[in-house]
Each structure stands twice: as structure tokens, then as C-alpha cells.
Amino acid sequence: MTDLRFENIDWHEAANQREHHTDKYDGEELIFRRGQLVSFSLTFNRHFGHEDSLKFITSTGPSPSESARTKAVFPLSSESSGNGWKAQLVHQRNSTLTISISSPANAPIGRYTLNMQISSHGNHATLKLGTFVLLFNPWLQEDGVFMSNPAEREEYVMEDSGAVFVGSTNRINMVGWNFGQFEGDILNICLTILDSSLNFHRDSATDVARRGDPKYIGRVLSAMVNSNDEGGVLLGNWSGNYIGGRDPRNWNGSVEILKEWKKSGYRPVRYGQCWVFAGTLNTVLRCLGIPARVVTNFNSAHDTDRNLSVDVYYDPMGNPLDKGSDSVWNFHVWNEAWFVRNDLGSSYSGWQVLDSTPQEKSQGVYQCGPASVSGLREGDVHLDFDMPFVFAEVNADRITWIYDADRNSSKQNSSDTNTVGRYISTKAVGSYSRMDVTEKYKYPEGSSQEREVFKKALGKLKPNHTFNPTSSPDDTREEREPSISGIFQVIGTPEVGKEVNLALMLKNLTEDMKTVTVNMTAWTIVYNGTLVHEVWKDSITVSLDPEEEIQYPVKITYAQYEKYLKADNMIRTTAVCQAPDEAELVVARDVILDNPTLILELMDQGQAQVRQPVSVRMVFSNPLDEPVKDCVLMVEGSGLLRGSLKIDVPTLRPKERSRVRFEILPTRSGTKQLLADFSCNKFPAIKAMLSIDVAE
């Protein structure tokens, strides 16, 4: 009888991809999820007999080995047993065998080669059957990323567009983001990110062997999405000057960023800020099969000295100071990824914070997490990874200081235990509403449990520390109740191009007459608190009768702030109020100015259909008494158009309305998000989002 010879393989591609939930990936590559059966048919030159045997060899990485579990050799068997790679004969018909193979539920993810060894009449031949990509499997209970809730799995693994919450505690806004994890070449780029890491360059065999652990992958990716230590994806920039790159506000999603990284020869893409890092990391996590979401923390502390308090400085004239290394960001965006924590115990499993924004080094590298959300709530800051830093982001005490440059002295003004870590937000499952997850991170502010947890966390950081969150070495001042109160009230809706109106409300809380000196300033700022430029100042002295309340109007004209406003549209107003022989009262308010509205609308009546062109119109009205020029419209949306669309829009005269028509060609059915960014010399980043239902 002739030797058995291989003739053909049928990968049952459509059926496998449907079963493995990988049919949305755009491209020719075979993509499977670990721990799950893959069936295929092999055709030979003759009937497969008792004298014939088959062995399969899977391998991944540059130096595969069985001891590292990056290579497996396993025979074709009639029954399924054991925990490793398995191959089972499903049925035989003439010269065709239908076979199913499966990987362990904790196999390293990545690109694999599948070889087959044929033994027939004492002769052996080895040949390559093909390559495939193995991903994490949130549908499989044995996988560490298993997510049992189908609606959550659909949102956190399969949803390719989403939203990020930005702004401030008194003005929460939402911007759309195109994750696009199924777009052509994105999976390939995500695997390249892993192969570009410091860990891979130092010891590729160990790195690839550890890729079965979502905890490890998450930490590597938190380092690789920023470019601070190695050939990472994005370069951060908070200066307000984005020459040589793109203003971070102008990105609509991750696809363009990842493709630009590849196209440039893996040089850092310029520029990112926290939501750009988080949106990009979210794409990579979902693409590899790890459930992930984008989370925003308002009033986010950046505690550089690990003492769970942040120090904020003002001068006596009311100017906020860039003094000290601590800061409180208006908002900060990170990711949560869902997986088990076998290293810590089951109570710490579930959502884990991963933060790819380069803020502080961890183990010598700009990386952060995974930090267990349930562990943060209980103050378990001694656990891996970076728990003290994340705990402080949501729970630090805020200490305000007045710094006198003439005397080179600081005195503590006030201590606040409940302004940091507010309205922690993420997109709701299945809708674009805001879901508040603050209670997952901490007990309610002001509750005894919250203070007990803070005390516990401080004790774990400094075993000998006596709990007093407001203490400082040179602070011997008695805490006295202030005799006056003050707040800034915003009048009307502040809009770019118009005067900003506020009122400083001052109230005498005592039965005595008070004379109060007030020094006020207004600065344009970037959302992380970076000061840009002073745009207004004023000083007054007021007399307050017992229990009297007055309001002092504050007007900041467009001419004053126009040149210095950044894409965040933020102005910080501050007042330092002093009554004789009393501690200063610091009143601060961040004002966010609204951009004019950008409208997207479908032109065609009826529903959009796959592979049928659809006309969309953008409408924008110039609200200013001067022309706006250098106008550019950028549009993207996964499943709606390939890549992105860039349209130059003609200069707009004062008060002129612009209508721009363009076409998209949907490639996938379902509800898809079209995202637009309009920028010009006066408005650097105006956003719009349009949901489009696409029929087959």
C-alpha cells in the first residue's frame, strides 16, 4: 500500500469563526479563542488506516519549547482527555478526516503555527498546515477572563465604539470614541505591541510563555500604549503646544493612532492625553479578548510622594501656583479590565485598574496596574500592583497652602477630605448614558467606613504613622472655623466667543462686622491643572454687616481669554479672601465654556444598508463676529467607512453657516457610531456623534 500523503485542508472557516465569536475581525487570518474546539477536515491520497498515525505540533514565539508551554506535540486520538492540547477524530469519510483540536484554557495567546507529522509504514513526514491567532476566551468558564453576563460581554468585548466622560464635577460632558478593534490589521498591530515591549526584548521566551496570564498582558500593555520607556504607541503632551503632531482633542478613535504607529515604523504617535491613552488601551484589550471599559475619575489626585494627600498652592494675590509635584486633575481617564486574580485570592478578582497614561514609574517603568477595584475599596494598598497610587487618585485628602514668595514660607490654609475622587463614570451597558461606579472604589464620602479605610491604607503605607490627615511638620496652627464663606456662581451658560459671567458670593457667618480684602484671578488651564495664562485679575475690599451676603460680579471678555484658551475650554477663577487676624478663605471654580454645536444628519430617507452609499451632512454656524479659517472636518466610524475622512472646509464669514455633504459606505450591519471632529483657528476641537442603524 502507498504511503499516506496529505492533499488538502478545509478550515471550516465560517463555522469556526461563528463558534469562536471572531467573525467580526476583518481579514484573512484564522482567529480562535483558547480552550475551545476548532474543527477542520484533512483530505489524503487514500483511506486513513490502522497502520497510519498523525501527530500535531503547535508552537508560538521565536523559541518555542514544551517546558515553557509555547510548544505542544499531541497525537490524534479517539477520545478527549487531559488538560493540554488535544486532537480528536470526529469522523472519517473516504479519504477525508474531520478533526477537532483544542488548546488549554490558560494557553499563551498569540500567533501559532500548526504542523502535522504523518507516520505511515515506518516513514515520517512533517508539514505545515497553517497559522492562526489564539485569543482570550470570555465565553469559557475555565478562562481567567470569563464574563458570565451576556449583555456585559457584548459591551466589554464586542462593542467597537463607545464614549469617554470628560469635563469637571459641575459640568460632565461625553465624547464618542471609535475603538475599532475588529478593523483590518488592528489585531496584527496589537500583537506587534506585545513583541515591541521591554520584556520581549529582554527575554522573549519567558515573555511569550507568560502571555497566558491576563494580569501580565494588562501590565505590559499599560507600559506599551505610552512611549516613555520603549517603542510604545503614543507620546503624551500636556503643554498646550502640539506642533509636530495632533492636538489630543482632535482624535476620534484608536484605529488611526494604531495604523499611524505601524506606518511610521513604530515611532511614537504625537500626541496623547489620558483619554487617548485609555481609548487606545481599551481597543487593544478588547481586540485580544480581555473584557475592558474606559473609566473617568473627576477631581483625580496625582500623589507623587505616596502620603495619600495632595498639596495645592496659591499666592496671597489669588494666583494658583505650579509649586510642588502633587496635583488634582479635573478628570483623569483609565481602564478597567476584567479577570481573576489568582495571585491575590478570589475576593480581589473582577475589575482591575490599568492606566497607560505616563504619570509615575512602577518597577522602573511608566506602567500602572492591574490594581484590584475591590481591594482599593477596602484600602488594601499593600497588594500588587500600584495600589497606593490608584487609591490616592480616588481618595487622597486635599491640603490647600498659601505660599508667600517674599518670606519663602507656606502656611496650611485648609484640609478637605471629600473633594477627590468624584463621579467615577463609565458608559452604561447597551446605552450611552453615564454609569456611576464611585461606590465600587470607596465607601460613601463622610461615612465612618470611608475614614476607617483611609486610616487603614495610611497605616499599611506608614506603619508608625499617627492618623491625622491634616498634620504637617511645621503646622502648629489651631484649626479655627472660618468666619466668612464664599463660592463662585456661574451666570448663564458660558460659551466660547462670548463674555464669561460669574458672581463671587461672600457671606459673613458671624454676628460681627467684617472687612474683607479679596484678591481674584482667572487663568486658562489644561484639564490636568497645568496653568496656561492669566487672563483677568481684580482686587476689592468689602464690608460685611453681621450675617450679610453680597455678590460681586466677575466679567471676563472674549478678547481677554481668546488667545489663551486651549481645546479643553477651561478657565480657573480663584479668590483669596482675608479678614483681619484670620486665616485666608480660598474660593476656586473651574469654568468650562461650551463650543458651538456641530450637527451630523443623514440625508437619505429610510435606513442605511450594507454596501450602499449613504449621504451625511455636517452643519456648523460660526457664532463669532469675525471669520473662522483653517477649517478641517475629520470623520470616522467602524463599520461605516474604511479608515477616516478628512475634508477641508472653506473659511466662514462672521455668523455664516456651513453645510458640508459627504458619503459613507457601511460595511457591517447593526447600530454604528459616526464620529466627527471639526477644528479651525478659533475652535480647536468640536465633536459630534451620530448613531446609524445599518440593515443587511
Polypeptide structure, described:
The chain has 696 residues and is α+β, with helices and mostly antiparallel strands. It folds into four domains: 130 residues, Immunoglobulins (Immunoglobulin-like), CATH 2.60.40; 312 residues, Transglutaminase-like (Coagulation Factor XIII, Chain A, domain 2, Alpha-Beta Complex), CATH 3.90.260; 109 residues, Immunoglobulins (Immunoglobulin-like); 98 residues, Immunoglobulin-like. It has 13 helices and 38 strands. The strands form nine sheets. A nine-stranded mixed β-sheet has the order 1-3-7-6-5-4-8-9-2, with helices on one face. Strands 19-18-17-14-22-23 form a six-stranded antiparallel β-sheet, sandwiched between helices. A hairpin with a 2-residue loop joins strand 10 and strand 11. The radius of gyration is 29 Å and the shape is elongated. The two termini are 52 Å apart. About 2% of the residues have low confidence.
List the helices and strands and how they pair.
Blueprint: E1 6-10, H1 13-19, E2 31-33, E3 38-44, E4 52-60, E5 71-77, E6 86-93, E7 96-102, E8 110-120, E9 123-135, H2 150-158, E10 161-168, E11 171-178, H3 186-195, H4 198-202, H5 204-209, H6 214-224, E12 234-236, H7 254-263, E13 269-272, H8 274-288, E14 292-302, E15 309-314, E16 320-321, E17 327-339, E18 350-354, E19 371-372, H9 373-377, H10 387-395, E20 397-404, E21 409-416, E22 422-427, E23 434-436, H11 438-441, H12 448-461, E24 484-490, E25 500-508, E26 514-525, E27 531-544, E28 549-556, H13 558-561, E29 570-578, E30 585-592, E31 598-602, E32 608-609, E33 614-621, E34 631-636, E35 644-649, E36 657-664, E37 670-679, E38 686-695
Parallel strand pairs: 2-9, 5-6, 12-13, 15-20, 32-38
Antiparallel strand pairs: 1-3, 3-7, 4-5, 4-8, 6-7, 8-9, 10-11, 14-17, 14-22, 15-16, 17-18, 18-19, 20-21, 22-23, 24-25, 25-28, 26-27, 26-29, 29-30, 31-33, 33-36, 34-35, 34-37, 37-38
Helix pairs in contact: 7-8
